[in-house]
Design brief:
Bound molecules: S-adenosylmethionine
Number of strands: 5
Largest sheet: 5 strands, parallel
Radius of gyration: 18 Å
Helix content: 40-55%
Distance between the termini: 35 Å
Number of helices: 12
Shape: globular
Strand content: 5-15%
Length: 273
């Protein structure tokens, strides 16, 4: 991330959700009415163009041509995770931790979370930008949501979480979406080891990129433009996993893998062919 700035990729994700949420209810895949409130002026301008007749189609196809697959993955992933959270809540989850929350608005928009203690953990710069935006939209943010400012690379997560009131003894759902690919292997490892200390029956939802995108980017469509944009944002991909090794990698850290679903599959699930 650029020194002193909120995460640009977190804001891009909010833009993709805002664009999708502005579609008619029967056509949209996810609905995040708060997303547009997190946008700084250049992206607010994009939303303005999308509001002109024909503008939304133009904006979506421009983004999809320039960064193939990125917008549709974020949109479908938002919906997939909303659905997985709803399923997890059937199992008496007592607290939710959102690691690298960015402009995730689930704590405010999912009514089923209304009684669940939630910890939003993020880099201090991104979190400050989010809290400022939230103050303008939610005059009294819910007290059940606590903000924990942490840099995963400095491994101060355990003490920051217990100071914030997180309890290991409670059944926990941890969400870590769109973050591991920006971290070091050590930071991913130590964060996962902290997650594994949660009470039995807890669940973790996280995303990773295929390790080969780091070593042979040319094998993946659209990587050149994507990497150039990430470079500008100071948010390079630094960590990936081989899907074949994920079950063992997780088992070595105290987890058992229930589901590993790739972008092509979840995109098809919500967008169709
Ligand atoms: C691509 S955004 C994802 C945001 C959100 N989870 C989503 O899916 O829209 C990456 C997030 O990771 C956070 N992040 C990146 N590096 C971090 C670090 N070293 N420590 C804490 N948070 C970090 C950024 O602040 C940002 O919120």
């Amino acid at each position: 991330m650029r020194e002193g700035h909120a995460s640009r990729t977190a804001e891009q994700n909010a833009l993709f959700r805002a664009l999708e949420s502005s579609r008619p209810p029967h056509r949209r895949i996810c609905d995040d009415p708060l997303a547009r409130h997190f946008l700084s002026w250049p992206f607010t301008l994009v939303m303005g163009i999308a509001a002109i007749p024909g503008g939304a189609t133009f904006v979506r196809s421009y983004i999809d041509r320039r960064w193939p697959g990125v917008r549709s993955s974020v949109v479908a992933r938002t919906r997939l995770i909303d659905d997985l959270i709803a399923a997890a809540l059937e199992e008496a989850i007592e607290q939710l931790v959102i690691l690298g929350a960015g402009f995730d608005s689930r704590a405010y928009r999912l009514s089923r979370l209304a009684t669940i203690d939630t910890f939003e953990v993020d880099h201090p710069n991104t979190q400050a930008a989010k809290q400022e935006a939230l103050r303008n939209v939610l005059p009294s943010p819910p007290k059940r949501v606590r903000f924990v400012a942490v840099d995963f690379k400095h491994n101060d997560l355990p003490s920051a979480m217990s100071e914030a009131g997180y309890r290991e003894s409670k059944r926990t759902l941890v969400l870590w979406e769109g973050v591991t690919n920006y971290l070091t292997a050590e930071a991913v490892d130590s964060t996962l080891r902290w997650c594994s200390t949660a009470s039995a029956g807890s669940q973790l939802l996280f995303t990773y990129v295929h390790r080969d995108i780091l070593t042979t980017p040319s094998a993946f469509v659209g990587t050149r433009n994507l990497f150039a944009s990430l470079e500008k944002a100071g948010e390079r991909f630094t960590f990936g996993m081989d899907p074949n090794q994920v079950p063992d990698y997780l088992a070595g850290r105290g987890f058992s893998l229930e589901l590993d679903i790739g972008a092509a599959e979840y995109r098809a699930r919500y967008f169709g062919s």
